[in-house]
Amino acid sequence: MSDNDVVLTPKTKTKLKLDKPKLYKVILFNDDYTPREFVTMVLKAVFRMSEEAGYRVMLTAHKLGSSVVVVCTKDIAETKVKEAMDYAKEAGFPLMLTAEPEE
Ligand code: TYC
Question: What pLDDT band is residue 4 in, cutting at 50, 70 and 90?
């Protein structure tokens, strides 16, 4: 090999495999005091649901005790839970939502 030959050494490529972000369920809980219309309104405003979808989720929580509203990233789930509960607190209702990691 002469002095001015170029020697190419292959770079070792380390592919960083990022884990899929864990998903969170937003759960809506029933209570005896928050009006149905208010729950539906909050679901429409915070989760951009249609009247029909909001009403269906509200009614499921009303009948069964709880209902999954949406599945999304932790950040979004926690932000939406806070937004929805702030609306309720402001209006004086005990509406409760949580963000729970999916199994
Ligand atoms: N149970 C409430 C009522 O009868 C309505 C309601 C529905 C409240 C769903 C909360 O997540 C809820 N006024």
Answer: low
